[in-house]
Amino acid sequence: MIHSRIVRNPIAPSEVLARVGHPEDGAVLLFLGVVRDHADGRSVTGMRYECYEEMAEEVLAEIAGEAALRLGTDRLAVVHRVGELAIGETSVAIAVSSPHRGEGYDASRFVIEEIKKRLPVWKHEHYADGASAWVEGTVPPGTGGA
Amino acid sequence: MALSVQTLFFAAYRDLLGTSTLDVELPEGASVSDLVVTLRARGAPFDALPEEPAVAVNRSYAPMGRSLAEGDEVAFIPPVAGG
Fold first, then answer.
1. In DSSP terms, which residues pair with A44 in a beta bridge?
2. How far does B8 lie from chain A, in Å, by closest CA?
3. What angle is formed at CA A11 by the lines to CA A50 and CA A35, rounded to 5 degrees?
4. What sign has the CA pseudo-torsion B3, A51, A61, A65?
5. How far is CA B52 from CA A22, A119, A146, B33, B36, in A?
6. B contact set with A (CB within 8 A)
7. For chain A, which domains are there?
8. Is residue A21 within 8 angstroms of chain B, CB to CB?
9. Domains of chain B, CATH where assigned
10. Would you call A52 and B64 a contact, using CB atoms and an 8 Å cutoff?
11. What is the mean pLDDT of chain A?
12. ipTM above 0.90?
């Protein structure tokens, strides 16, 4: 079962991992995106993620569906968290399983790259000096002047 | 004839405009591009919106030429930064 969800509570990676796996599968992958403590040479103390929730749920489901075609199985789970996150907390978790590793790596990579291209999510970084700013992002394909 | 759309502003655009939603009246047959021109013509701070922003109409990304219909939800999407 393909699983995709935007959540506000902390992500438990083991629960995301538990959604995939099958006797036919010889490869199981878990990718975690976590909040790091620096950006462009500045010290970061935390991050606030915002989203266009209704659309983000739809786009994440679309990305998961496209990734499953690459994976060749429906054993794919992706969870993206929004809200206030501390350094080291998981913002995104992607689990996949497939008979062989190639398709798994390909599908997992596809999910994170597409999230960065088109998921309507924004992050506001808090810096050690008390300042904060929206992280520069990517213009989604098929829009505006893109 | 006129049509009314609901615009949504997120993240940096919301901060810029000081509002997250606005109802806008447009002439029949108006496109996303016409909506952007109409908003920017209001002057500051609306004129700081990009001339060709990314938008989603009814939760799907749409090009500037997309025609709008009564009741459409048009979201202005700043460059995205998920992950």
1. A127
2. 9
3. 60
4. positive
5. 47, 19, 9, 8, 8
6. 8, 10-12, 15, 50-56, 59-64, 75, 77-83
7. 3-134 (3.90.1170.40)
8. no
9. 2-77 (3.10.20.30)
10. no
11. 97
12. yes
What are the chain A neighbours of B82 within 8 Å (beta carbons)? 49, 51, 56, 80, 92, 115-116, 119-123
Q: Does A146 score more than 80 pLDDT?
A: no
What was the pLDDT predicted at B79?
97
B49 near B40, Cβ under 8 Å?
yes
Provide, as residue numbers in chain A, all residues whose Cβ is less than 8 Å from the Cβ of B51. Answer: 145
In this structure, which amino acid lies at residue A121? V
Taking only the tens of pLDDT, chain B with its 83 residues reads 799 999 999 999 999 999 999 999 999 999 999 999 999 999 999 999 999 999 999 999 999 999 999 999 999 999 999 99
- Say which DSSP state A63 is in: H
Those residues whose C-beta lies under 8 Å from the C-beta of residue A87, and which sit 6 or more positions away, are: A35, A36, A37, A44, A45, A46
**List of chain B residues whose C-beta atoms are within 8 Å of the C-beta of residue A116:** 80-83
User: In chain A, which among 47-86 make CB contacts under 8 A with chain B?
Assistant: 49-52, 54-56, 58, 80
Amino acid at A90: T
pLDDT bucket at A144, cuts 50 / 70 / 90: confident
**Position A145 pLDDT exceeds 80:** no
